Amino acid sequence: MDYDIAEIDRLSGTTAAQRSTNFRWLSQQGEQTLIEAIKIQTDLIRQFRRANQGQIMSPEFGYAMHSLAVQKMVWLETAQRRKGDKLSDAEYQKVQEVRVERIRAKQRTKGSPKRELIRVRFFNLIEDLRQKNLSWRQISDYLATHHREKMAYSYIRDTYNQLTSEIKKTGL
Q1: How far is CA 85 from each of CA 19, 82, 91, 98, 99, rounded to the nearest angstrom?
Q2: 45 closest CA partner among 59, 35, 33, 34
Q3: Is 87 found in the same domain as 14?
Q4: pLDDT of 29-78, one tens digit each?
Q5: Same domain, 126 and 87
Q6: For a disulfide at 101, which of 2, 30, 90, 154, Cβ 3.0-4.6 Å?
Q7: What is the pLDDT of residue 14?
Q8: What pLDDT sits at residue 106?
């Protein structure tokens, strides 16, 4: 597919390198910031539609408006660092919210591969083995012998208990 990159440059006022940097910044943000980018993009599209009724919106236009929205967010984020730029109280508050959301997003950790393996593949098996009165050590030995998965019995026990409590909380 051939898209008109010059049209994207013109509409967004950014270069391909700037867009790449801005999208990299956006990819490191939390979901609230991503939603804010879409909100700003939607507002920009609505403003354009009001000003230019009857024009057909192209994929380049949608991408350019997204690029412009992210550019505005990056500008707002870096305004304090630039000499002479002063933020209003509302703008400063928005920057603070973005920064707090970024910290919250970093707090989320990836799940453990072994925990996911227990959740997806072995949870029901462990449940059956526990109902047959096998100890946690015996379950660990069973998984090592028959499924070639070495896990500490205490890890299996803790993970199983966590998953069981999560299931009870969700009501499944």
Answers
A1: 22, 6, 12, 19, 19
A2: 59
A3: yes
A4: 777 778 888 888 888 888 887 777 666 678 888 888 889 888 888 887 77
A5: no
A6: 30
A7: 87
A8: 62
